[in-house]
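Case study 2.
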Amino acid sequence: MFDVYRNDKRGLLVLSTGSAVPALYSAHTWRKSRKRVLKVSNEIKSAVQAQGYYIRSLGTTRTRTH
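Prediction:
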């Protein structure tokens, strides 16, 4: 299972259950998602296994109006 955290800047942090937030990202204010995550994509799973966490900035989507 996995723990999912979000921050105010639309960042996403995925850790294996029970792991601590990495020191590099501990300064950010992360909020844990209340939903349990049982399954994630292969990309996320391999990143968590390799480095202990997966982080992504979702960013804002901009639409152009002409």
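The radius of gyration is 13 Å.
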